[in-house]
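Narrative of activities, Objective 1.

The group set out to show that a structural description can be obtained from nothing but a protein's sequence at a throughput compatible with the screening campaign. Below is one input-output pair from the validation batch, recorded exactly as produced.
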Amino acid sequence: MRNFIQYFLLCVEFFFVLYMVGYATFLFLSVTVGSSELYAAKRRSRLKNELDNDYFLPVSVIVPAYNEGVTIEATVRSLLGLSYRIYEIIIVDDGSTDDTAQVMREKFNMVRIDRPVQRRIACQPELAIYESREWKVPIILVSKQNGGKADALNMGINISTYPYFLCIDADSVLQYDSLDRIVRPILEDSSTVAVGGAVRPCNGATIENGHVIQYNMPKNILASMQVLEYERSFLASRIFFDKFNGNIIISGAFGLFRKDLVVAAGGYDHDTMGEDMELVVKLHVFCRETGRPYRIRYAPDAICWTQVPENMKDLCKQRRRWHIGLFQCMRKYRNILANPKYGLVSFVSYFYFLFYELLSPFIEVFGVFATILAFCVDLINMPFLILFFAIYVVYAATLSLTAFFARTHTVDLRLRFSDVIKAVELCALEVSCLRFIMAWVRMTALIGYNKKRHVWGHIERKTIDIK
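Output recorded for this entry:
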């Protein structure tokens, strides 16, 4: 029996060496490429060697809202402060039970109108439509029966006027130049059908007229660790995937899409909790199946500020939802894996999300149990294990800090010395503790899947510090 356990653990050890080498290599390459790209972009900006003209694509900004009475006013006011010229704001109230619609009507002097809705994509019926023309751009409020976020976005697409639409979450605010920057890849290349922007936690930031006038690490420790996590994610993998048209996810908090192509592909899927990723993968499939040249891009300098959960309960709800959405999307489009038709999207992007996102919590938790088993049968070298874990933490924390400081420096945000120390201290905690807690949450997310696959869960919102 001992020999069998020893052989089993040897196989596990070999697998984990390959797994960790693969992940460490990918993380190193992606952070290096991402940091280099940000610094190169900053140099081009200083030399004025970038697209700078007066061309504008008309854009419909769609904000799906469900019980967002606390944040909706700040979100809309941030949209009114954009430097862009031609756009409209569409708020889709998806059957809220709070005062979301009332806040919109009162704060923005909206009046009810009669306006037909052309249903190019199926969605729940509207209850009332309101409009205000007193501001910089038209503001439209659609109150409809509850159908979920995907359904609300489909309603926004149906009622929108312009050929491109931008979707953002109702608890987010855009930086003043975000719309200018996110349309730039389309102006540079007409085959671009979708562009994702960078999402950054606004906890700890003070925003005035779309400008960040003060940026501090959040006081909440959990939120601070998520700042480091977001910077690593949005800086690293997405810039790297952008190099070969390999991005298969655009955050639902901030993404720009070509409307006619989205309509032709069928719009957002009502039956998935990861509607943002599902749409992007759907566009990959649709364009390749129809032989249409296309690009799906990432604009790292287009920034959306969003709230992140500040308590463990809400964070677990969010990550559980994300993992269920990832599972649904990967399962629905499983024919992409090892399919030459999809090129690097199949052999790099899909492979990465399958093994290092979807299956990673199972692999990581299995590794912990294998370590416990080895300890119980006295087949583990504790000094070596501690050294190996320390090297892993230092390596991962170094890459996280590289991503964090690269992002902060290249967008000209100034950190206090105390925030720098806080980031250094918390990066190790995020890698060594929070990561494994989230791995357990993600691993258990699919338990009771049939009952919970459409349950979003309520997350507490706070007023965004915007002036």
